Amino acid sequence: MRLKEGWMLTEIAGEYVAVPTSESAKTFRGIVRLNETCKDIWEGLQKGWTENEIARHLVETYDGVDMEQAEQAVRSVVEKLKSEGLLVE
Length: 89
What we know:
Number of domains: 1
Strand content: 15-25%
């Protein structure tokens, strides 16, 4: 699973946003606001990491986050991105 082509992740005024470009801008109107954790999950998906690899990265990055919490966060974000049509198999 990976993110659809045509998205740019950027930071604007201290907030992370994903902005559709090219063909994606024709079908998705608006932007996607991301918190720090969502940004890390987005970047993991961009790199082609599996959900498990992304969860391990979150555990290594954030103090006090265990694997179960990280897996739940990844599942939640992935399901939201799928429902918005931003992921492809």
